[in-house]
Each structure stands twice: as C-alpha cells, then as structure tokens.
C-alpha cells in the first residue's frame, strides 16, 4: 500500500513496485517540481493573470510566494492531511494557494466557481474541511454570504480566506507571509488533492490523487502534446477541472517550465485578444466551446497564428465539427478522452488525419490496461463495443471514503468501471460510442440525475421524477425532468420546478433545461423506470444520447 491516507484505497504493492521500476513514478512532488523549476529558470514567467491589470509570477516568485503562504497557513493551524475547499476562478491566487497547500501536504478539494450551497456544504461537511478559500464576488455572486452559511453547518470549518474584500471573514492577503520554518515537505506517495467526480449518485464522489501518479500523467501528456519551456498555455475552462489542470493543462505546463495564462472567461471576445497579446501556443476546451471558437474565428480581427494545438474533449466531439476546427483556427486539433479518475487518451501529433477526426485517442501509458466487456464482464470480441474498464499507473483504485460505492465502481481486481461504451480500433485508438452510467454530459459538465431528482422529489406536489439527457445539437445533451404530479395536487409550472432546483443552491448548469409533466414513465420488465426509454421518447429518431 502506497498512499499515506487510509481513506484512499492504494495500489497493491506489486503494482506500485512495477510502476516505480518502469520509471513512471519517479519520486517527485508538486513542491519538488516547482522548486526545481525555480532553481533552473527563476526569472521565466510561470503564470500570467491578465485581468484586471496584468500580473505575472516568475518561477522564483511562485515558489517563494506559495512557500510563504504555506507558512502562514501553518501558523493558522492548517497541517498535513487537512482538507481545504478551494473555490477560486481562473486567477493567479488559485495556483498560488494550490501550491501552498501542496507544500503543507494539506489537500485542496477542487470546487468549481459554479458550485453553490448544496455542493459546498457537502464538500465541507463530508471532508471535514478546516478551511474554505473563495473570491469575494464572482460572476455576480457573493461567495462570502455562502461562506457564512456554510460555517454554521460545518463545525470543522475554522477559516474562510477571501481573495479581495473579506467581509466578516479573513483576507487571504492578511495571512502572514513571514519566512518561518515549514514542516517536512510532502512525500511522493502522499495524496496531493481531492478531485471531483462527474458522479452518478446523489452526492459527488471525491477522487484521491497522489503526487507520483498525477505527475506521471503530466509527464506523459507533455510528451504527447509537445509541451516544453516555450509552451504558452491558455486556461479557458475553470482551472479546477481535471482537463485544464492536467491534459496537459496548467500543471503540465508548469512541470515543463512553460507559461500558464489564465483566461477569466472562455468566449472569443475575451480569449482571442489574449491569444494574440500573450502569443498563446496551446489550449484545451470542451466541444461546444470549440464550436464557438471555430464559428467566430473567421470574423474576428485577432491574430491567432501563435496557436499550434487545441485539445478538445470532455464530451463527444462530432466528426463534422472536428473537421472544421483546423481550417478555421489555423492550428492542429488533438482529441482527448479523459476522466478525473485517471485514464486519459489522446490522438497523437503523428496520427493520420482521419484518425484525429474520428477517434478519441489512445491511452497515455503502455501500462494503461484496457478491457472492453459485456454486461457480464466478459471481454467482447476485438473491435466490438462494450463497457470500458481500466487500471494503470495513474488511475485510482477507489474513491475517498466510499467503500460501498467502490465495491460497485471497481472490479475486485482493481479495474475502474468508467461507465463509457467504447470500441477499440486495431491501432489501439478508442471510439466513444455512448454511455452506460446514469449521468448527463451537458457540453462537458457532468450532472448526476439522482442529485437533481432528490431535490425535485422534495416538492409536496411531486409524486415521482426522472431527469434524463436529451440530444441537443449544440451542447450534445441537455437535461429534461419528467415529473409525475401527485393525484389531486395543484398545477405546477415548469418554471417553478426549475426555481425549486435553483433555490436549493446548486450549480446553475444542473438546473433542468426542460421540464415535462407526464402521467407515467415507460416501464421495463422489472418495473423500474427505464431511462433509456425516456431518452428515446424525448429524442425520436435519434440514438440515445452519449
Ligand atoms: C466522449 N466522452 C468524453 C470524449 C470525456 C481530459 C479530457 C476530459 C476529461 C473529463 C478529463 C470525452 N468523448 N472525448 O478529466 O483529463 C466523458 C466520459 C468520461 C467523462 C469524464 C481530462 N472525454 N468524456 O471530461 O472526469 O464519459 O473528465 O468518463 O469531467 O467524460 O469526465 P471528467
């Protein structure tokens, strides 16, 4: 057993030995990587935060500032193994705070800026977080008010640190930055952070990643994508997502000694001027955003010629859309099919054009084990499609503090059940054909129907509800809530159902796009709600959405 945290199932010793012997796990940590970068190229720019006045962090500054902040956090009583919910937008503080926590061995829990009361209260109480880091206001929302509410419900929460005006909390700027002594640095097998799963259940699961395993995925990603010291990577998706963090993302770029530029909003009007002025070479995004960029580029004035590579993934990218990206943006496309639990597949720079347009890539590592199985866990014939199971040097062996769920989500021999339906080409490339898990993929944002169904069920007029994904030309899928009203209940408007979900305090992307009132759900043989039936009802003539 390798991970230092008893709450996280670790790789069995023989696997850990194999991964070390193969040179995948090299004994590095995020802290040692940053310190090595600061020693090798201290004055090179590590991070650019363009808004509202351009701020930069050299490698030396990022290392020094995050170490000082770590000392300040330590003085405030934050120590190794403590959980800290980190909810910051794409700003330099996000990266500085993350490295400060890595240095202490405290675990960032990566919340998204869109998360609201329900999610944040859950993260804080479930993880027993001791601190919560927020912006004062972001996108019209006052995070300090939410923080005050959360403090009342999460007794372990001792600190709220605010970037900006702290209100009744503590300003991050007031955390002491004196160079005081620090505890021992983290060990390579330690947990580094808790990432959020897309989720299929009422509450999201937390993904424990170690320094060793994650850094291997960064190194592999960098090699595949050609990331080096000259790379200028634009973070357009929320920095807390696994994709912009590691594929190859801001952590991959920092690992290679490149420059990370944080984009406050992903729209072309914000991002294109930054591509031009910061001479961006690489970025990654979800298919709906890639479509917006593709459509916008011909009519925009900005010079995008610095752009060499755009990664697209997180949801199925249609072949038609893929074929339009390169001519429009004047750069290469790479498809990526990844998951925060581990396995990441990329098309390769030397793949032929058709492969890049029509597949979702092949795994990073020769030791990523892939099984494609039927409902009985038997391997399907080569080339057929089935459930994707995987295990390997950077795929977790279980979620954090979730033994019952782990028994379902992992096979007894440690393969992760991805819930994706794929087929494999002779070249090893995977094509994502669909999904077997109860999840909606709304343009790359994942929604667990059960979480939203539970909220709608709490309405006194609601007898039953089923939330499903329906095909959407633009988002790939959007969400539809089928609602059965109680007999004799007064009429309910779709808007009232949406309001109920919104007012419960969940991320806006989880509010159902559509609400329909029905008499009954389609039934399967065993009398359970058939979500598959609902989906094909909702999208006549189309295959079940992915
Ligand atoms: C179809 N479905 C895809 C793709 C992910 C890189 C890229 C993406 C993620 C990510 C990531 C898909 N085509 N190209 O973490 O490092 C769906 C699958 C998968 C789930 C994982 C990364 N790329 N998906 O999206 O943890 O269903 O990670 O199992 O958010 O997204 O979601 P998530």
UniProtKB/TrEMBL annotation:
| Database matches in PROSITE patterns | AMP_BINDING
Top enzyme class: transferase
Keyword Transmembrane appears in the UniProt entry: no
Provide this UniProt record's keywords sorted from A to Z: ATP-binding, Ligase, Nucleotide-binding, Nucleotidyltransferase, Transferase
Name the residues that span the membrane.
none
**Any one GO molecular function term:** ligase activity, forming carbon-sulfur bonds
Instruction: Domain (AMP-binding enzyme C-terminal): give its ranges.
Output: 451-528
The EC designation for this entry is 2.7.7.58
Q: Where is the AMP-dependent synthetase/ligase domain?
A: 35-400
Q: State the superkingdom.
A: Bacteria
- Can you tell me which family this protein belongs to? Belongs to the ATP-dependent AMP-binding enzyme family.
Full protein name: 2,3-dihydroxybenzoate-AMP ligase
Per the UniProt record, the source organism is Streptomyces nitrosporeus
This protein's encoding gene: entE
């Amino acid at each position: 057993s390798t991970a230092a945290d008893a709450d996280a199932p670790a790789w069995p010793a023989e696997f850990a030995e194999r991964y070390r012997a193969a040179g995948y796990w090299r004994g590095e940590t995020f802290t040692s990587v940053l310190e090595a970068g600061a020693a090798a190229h201290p004055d090179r720019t590590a991070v650019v935060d363009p808004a509202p006045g351009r701020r930069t962090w050299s490698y030396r500054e990022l290392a020094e500032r995050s170490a000082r902040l770590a000392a300040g956090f330590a003085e405030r009583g934050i120590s190794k193994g403590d959980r800290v919910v980190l909810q910051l937008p794409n700003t330099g503080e996000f990266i500085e705070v993350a490295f400060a926590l890595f240095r202490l061995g405290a675990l960032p829990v990566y919340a998204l800026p869109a998360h609201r009361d329900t999610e944040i209260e859950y993260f804080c109480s479930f993880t027993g977080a001791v601190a919560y880091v927020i912006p004062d206001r972001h996108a019209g929302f006052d995070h300090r008010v939410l923080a005050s509410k959360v403090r009342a419900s999460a007794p372990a929460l001792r600190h709220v640190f605010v970037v900006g005006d702290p209100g009744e909390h503590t300003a991050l700027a007031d955390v002491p930055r004196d160079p005081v002594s620090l505890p021992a640095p983290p060990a390579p097998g330690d947990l580094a952070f808790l990432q959020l799963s897309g989720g299929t259940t009422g509450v999201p699961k937390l993904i424990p990643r170690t320094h060793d395993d994650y850094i291997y995925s960064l190194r592999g990603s960098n090699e595949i994508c050609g990331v080096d010291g000259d790379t200028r990577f634009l973070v357009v998706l929320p920095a807390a997502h696994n994709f912009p963090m590691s594929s190859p993302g801001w952590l991959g770029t920092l690992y290679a000694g490149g420059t990370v530029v944080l984009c406050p909003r992903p729209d072309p009007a914000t991002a294109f001027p930054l591509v031009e002025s910061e001479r961006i070479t690489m970025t990654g995004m979800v298919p709906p955003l890639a479509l917006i960029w593709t459509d916008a580029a011909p009519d925009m004035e900005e010079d995008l010629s610095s752009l060499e590579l755009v990664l697209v993934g997180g949801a199925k990218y249609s072949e038609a859309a893929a074929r339009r990206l390169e001519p429009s943006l004047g750069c290469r496309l790479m498809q990526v099919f990844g998951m925060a639990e581990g396995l990441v597949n990329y098309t390769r720079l030397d793949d032929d054009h058709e492969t890049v347009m029509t597949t979702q890539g092949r795994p990073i590592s020769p030791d990523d084990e892939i099984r494609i199985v039927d409902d009985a866990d038997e391997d399907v014939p080569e080339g057929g499609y089935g459930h994707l199971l995987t295990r390997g040097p950077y795929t977790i062996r279980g979620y954090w503090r979730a033994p019952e769920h782990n028994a379902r989500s992992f096979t007894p021999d440690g393969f992760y059940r991805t819930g994706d339906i794929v087929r494999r080409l002779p070249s090893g490339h995977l094509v994502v054909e669909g999904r077997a898990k109860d999840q909606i993929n709304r343009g790359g944002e994942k929604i667990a129907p059960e979480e939203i169904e539970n909220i709608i069920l709490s309405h006194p007029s609601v007898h039953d509800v089923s939330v499903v994904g329906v095909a959407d030309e633009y988002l790939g899928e959007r969400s539809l809530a089928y609602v059965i009203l109680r007999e004799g209940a007064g009429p309910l408007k779709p808007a009232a159902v949406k309001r109920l979900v919104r007012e419960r305090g969940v991320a806006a992307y989880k509010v159902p796009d559509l609400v329909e009132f029905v008499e009954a759900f389609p039934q399967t043989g065993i009398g359970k709600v058939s979500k598959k039936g609902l989906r094909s009802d909702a999208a006549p003539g189309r295959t079940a959405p992915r």
